[in-house]
Amino acid sequence: MVLSILVAIILGLIFGIITGLLPGLHPNTVVVGLLAISPFLLSFTSPISLAVFITTVATVNTFTDAIPSTYLGAPEESTALGILPMHRFLLEGKGHEAIVLTVIGGIFSLILSILLVIPLVYTLKTIYPFLQKTIVYLLIFSVIYLLFREKKSRFLAIMVFLLSGTLGMLTLNFPNLEQPLFPLFSGLFGISTLLISINSQSKIPAQIITYPKLSKKEILKTTPVSVFSGGLVSTLPALGSSQAAILGTVLLRKITSKEFLLMIGGINTVNFVLSFISLYVIDKARNGAVVGISQILEKITLNQLILFLSICMISGGLAAIATIHLSKIFSHYITKINYQTLVFSIVASIIFLVLLISGFYGFLILITGTFIGMIPTLKNIGKHHLMGCLMIPIILFYLL
Fold this sequence. Notes:
It is built from 17 helices and no strands. The protein is mainly α.
């Protein structure tokens, strides 16, 4: 058992790095593939080992996905809000420093969330009956608040929210479509940003390896907020890291670029880790990877919860080391290659994967999502409005 768990961690680390570095490829894609072949795999390994593998992949991904967001400008939804601060560092030749900040935020938030597991379990048990009755109203309030908070153009924000929501409803209800979220998110949050970066003829300056100078106050200021906001949205459907980051900036009020990157790094990790608590307490998974684990194990026990949280700590530490080393490599080579050629290659790879996994209809969703996803960047409004693709279907599910 111990040997199989160690093998699962090593393989999970490798796949977590791959999914983190390749834009458009998500841990959920790995999970779906794993579930498809799980009957074969279970003939020579245990369900626990498969669950440990998924846990490691997803944890590692929350650290490594900051690399393409910074160096390639190709974010997933969970890092979309981090683009501007990350790119600000990149254009100053300090892309590596931005990565280190997200890693530090992830590690400290991971440690704090693990330390608070017991009170978090009892808190969720206490408040969930109330949340269950008011979830739809909380989601509607969140939508109204996020739209009202948009200062550039509320009309455009509403249009983007409705367009993405309509696309989300069509996609999620499309018959026999494999991996519907893959083309949906790849278009809304991936290729849309990549195409704009190609058109802008981005010039990346020479990068220098620098490390952030942080005070204890900055870490103590952002870590609890990351855990609180990440933990809150991990219990509510349709809300993700982007919404948690907005909540965090509201709570902190004045926040520097360094603090924002610390916070977004922490939120991405906490959002996944605390999904285990949601699964254990209320038997509901708010994360695709945790959904996969729930399908393999059916019911998670206290001992299994402790095991998975321990795996999160181990894989988080390994991921932090790997991310920093990989960032150094990216920092060295990013200026030595043709940026436009690199980005075009990534776009072509995403299109190929969508056609392979989701077929022609998935490709149409990808193209439609790409055009919708370009609107926020071109009109300088928040990309988080694109999360209407999930929020509208879920709100209508609760209301209807």
